[in-house]
Amino acid sequence: LVGCSRTAPTDAGKAEAPTAPSVSEPGKLEPLVMAAQPADAITVREALTRKDGDKVVVTGQVPTEKVKPYNSALAAFVMLSHEDMAKEEVREEFECSAAATCPSCRKLLDKLGVRVELVDASGAPVAASLEGFRGLKPGSTITVEGEIKRDGKDKKLVRLVATKFFPG
Fold this sequence. Notes:
This protein is of the alpha/beta class. It has five helices and six strands, in the order H-E-H-E-E-H-H-H-E-E-E. A six-stranded mixed beta sheet has the order 1-2-5-6-4-3. The protein starts with 25 loop residues before the first helix and ends with a strand.
């Protein structure tokens, strides 16, 4: 199966469990890495107040593992401000056993987070997961450079189309 993370059924007829995420195409990500972490980055909270089309450099923290913050097929993820991730009520909410699909967790992510999508020079999404690249994992800090896009009927959902990033 092309694109499937599961292996073919074994002789016993059972599918093997998917393996831990790995960076399948690090060569696609390397050209997008900034040489150094920019000193002028704004927080995710500040990014949430910016207008559609604003060019920004934003630093934030990827949520915990239960949220499943990284897309396994694309260089896309969600991040929140360090300040919001440190709040007790946010940490508790993201400990939910179904945090990746929980409506309450999703609502919190929509309110406090930005969705980041890394694109190549042509503007196409990069087909490689960031999880595992240079040690990135849930809870990591990432800085990205890109353009704010406002989505949804009320334009309150914030997406950041990024052309560069700094892991760590």
